[in-house]
Structure formats: C-alpha cells, structure tokens
C-alpha cells in the first residue's frame, strides 16, 4: 500500500505513521504538510489511501477532499483529526470520506477502523 | 448565552486529558496524569498553548489553554517524538508538540460544546493573551510525572 499522510504538525505525522506501524500496516508513506499539498500530492502520486488531518493551513482536509472529488479523483480518504463531533462525521461522510478517527487514538482503535475499509 | 454553550465540567476535562496522555504520551492505557489537589506553584518558566473554538453566528467562542513549565513541555515533546531523555528539544519541535497537545485537548472540548464551532490552529507562547477574569469558565490542575499542568477554559466574546 502506498499511503499519503497529511497533517501540518510534524509531530502528529510522526505519531500517525508510528501508530500505523504498531497497528501492523507495513505501508510506504508519503507526507503532506497542509491541505493544498495533500491535494497536489494526491493527484501527482496517486496513493492507494489518504489519511488526513482536518484543521490545516492553506486548505483544510475537508476542502482538499472536496477538491479531489471535484477533480474526479476517487482515492479512498479518511480523516485522523482532533475533532470527532457528529456534525463533523456527517460532513466528512457527505464529502466522501470513508471514516473519521478522532485523536487521541491507539493502534487498536486505528486497526478497528481501517481494517474493515481494507477488507 | 455562553453558559448555555459551555457545559464542560472539570471531570470532563480530566477525562479528556487522561485519554490524551494515556494514548499519545504515556504509551498505552496507563493513566499517569491525575488531578492536583494541592495549590499550583507560581510558574517559573511558563509555556502556554491554546486553541480557540468560535461559533460565528453567535459571536461567541471558547479558548482552551494548557499551561506548564518549560521542562515539562520538553518532557512532553520527548515523549511524543519518542526521543531519549538526554536529547535536547529544539524550539520548532517544542512548539509543534505542545501546540498539538492543546489542539487535541481543545478538539475534544469542542465536541462537548452545545453548538458547532470552528477550531483554530494552535498558538504557543510563554503566556497566553490576558483575558478579563469574568471570562474565566473552568480550570483543572493536573500532576504528571512530577510536573504540573493547568488546563483552563475561557469565553471569547
């Protein structure tokens, strides 16, 4: 699997990547530092999955997702974000996201969410 | 109006910080952050991180501030980045890590607000911008590995 992780925090990207490894996913990871870069890298690199923060400078995660879908890009997309309200989950789902993992997360909670999507 | 928006109790703030520290900082399910019942010592080398949650249509908001001392923020950064205890913490990593801690705590507080709000990016500085006392909503002092943290909520009007 070739996976794009987007988060403006280097610390959080590192935590997400570490947690993915702990969850047993031996994936090749590329990193984006904001929503605009996530959009650009998704179109240029065509990853198998995008895992994105919501609240980022330049473009938010939801704006990146909406722009990708408008561009006809249907790469599976999930959020890993500090905000897990029902309103945001509904907004994410309406935009085409497959899941929303709220921070803080554990390797177990990440696996429980992502495994069914990969099946 | 703000009282109707913010019904976040000290117990809920404690539960959020316990979850955040256990999952992200202390490497598992062990809860090492506890409520502090003793007085909070005057900060010597303070560091604050905060995020704002605003409800534009109501013209209201809430600020979540996490305050600690620089050595504790260094320790938090090392834990988040899995650095050795002897490794020096750079300013960029410190701001990123401590800001992200406030971001995750604030994001979870935001989920408890009565109205959908927009979360800001985190800010980090020695002190948070001063707010009038009458905008104070709630706070809780916490002990973590010999250090003290204070999480406070303030209204933004």
Automatic annotation (TrEMBL), chain A:
SUPFAM superfamilies: CheY-like. GO terms for biological process: phosphorelay signal transduction system. Pfam families: Response_reg (PF00072). Keywords: Phosphoprotein. The keyword Phosphoprotein applies. The modification 4-aspartylphosphate is found at residue 53. Residues 2-118 form the Response regulatory domain. GO terms for molecular function: DNA binding. PROSITE patterns: RESPONSE_REGULATORY. It comes from the Bacteria. The keyword Phosphoprotein applies. PANTHER family: TWO-COMPONENT RESPONSE REGULATOR, TWO-COMPONENT RESPONSE REGULATOR ARR22. This is Response regulator with CheY-like receiver, AAA-type ATPase, and DNA-binding domains. It comes from Sanguibacter keddieii (strain ATCC 51767 / DSM 10542 / NCFB 3025 / ST-74).
């Amino acid at each position: 699997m070739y996976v794009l992780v987007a988060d403006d925090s280097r610390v959080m990207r590192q935590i997400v990547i570490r947690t993915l490894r702990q969850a047993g996913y031996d994936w090749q990871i590329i990193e984006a530092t904001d929503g605009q870069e996530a959009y650009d890298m998704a179109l240029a690199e065509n990853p198998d999955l995008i895992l994105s923060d919501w609240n980022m400078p330049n473009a938010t995660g939801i704006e990146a997702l909406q722009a990708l879908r408008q561009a006809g890009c249907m790469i599976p997309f999930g959020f890993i974000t500090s905000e897990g309200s029902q309103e945001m989950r509904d907004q994410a789902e309406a935009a085409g996201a497959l899941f929303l993992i709220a921070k803080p997360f554990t390797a177990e909670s990440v696996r429980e969410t992502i495994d069914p999507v990969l099946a | 109006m703000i009282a109707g928006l913010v019904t976040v109790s000290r117990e809920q703030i404690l539960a959020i910080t316990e979850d955040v520290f256990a999952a992200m900082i202390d490497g598992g399910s062990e809860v090492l952050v506890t409520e502090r019942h003793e007085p909070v010592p005057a900060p010597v080398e303070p560091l604050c991180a905060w995020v704002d949650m605003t409800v534009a249509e109501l013209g209201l908001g809430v600020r979540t501030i996490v305050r600690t001392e620089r050595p504790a923020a260094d320790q938090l950064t090392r834990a988040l980045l899995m650095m050795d205890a002897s490794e020096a913490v750079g300013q960029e990593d410190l701001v990123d890590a401590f800001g992200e801690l406030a971001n995750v705590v604030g994001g979870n507080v935001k989920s408890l607000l009565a109205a959908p709000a927009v979360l800001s990016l985190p800010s980090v500085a020695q002190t948070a911008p001063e707010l009038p006392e009458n905008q104070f909503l709630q706070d809780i002092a916490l002990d973590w590995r010999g250090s003290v943290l204070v999480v406070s909520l303030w209204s933004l009007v």
